[in-house]
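anyone seen this seq b4? input:
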Amino acid sequence: MKEAAHMMTVPRLGEDGEMSISRINPPDLHETPGYHHVTVVQAARMAMLAGQCPLDRAGEVVGKGDLLRQVDQVVSNATAALAAVGAGPEHVVRSVIYVVSADRAELGAVWKRLTDSSLAPAFTTASTLLGVAALGYPDQLVELDLTAALGT
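predicted toks r here
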């Protein structure tokens, strides 16, 4: 007999109870390092954030050559973008992380830095981590793409 799927549900947002987020790890799939294979959302509204880059308010790349400093800036920017729509990291239902590297140790270091950050609850959901050849800004080493479920 198969084991039951591991499931985590986020409390509903709003007084009308129209939003819920469930994260599931089906028993037929491998264990994950913190994320869930499936995220099911019932929401009145969704927010798709533009890829958050390691840029300061002046539009300058922060931490040139310093991957983890760039991760910290991306976390700060993503937190501000989520707050602008009344959301927090627990409302993220999908994340895609892009890292300019083919080195699995560097990819792992980015994952660890993200999951140790104030944005950590965002990475318990459906997540993808990719090593890529280049990103849009010169000296940019990381970018974070988030989708959040919002109440009404």
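Helices lie at 67-84, 104-115. The beta strands are 6-10, 20-25, 38-42, 45-48, 92-100, 126-132, 142-150. kinda curious what u guys think
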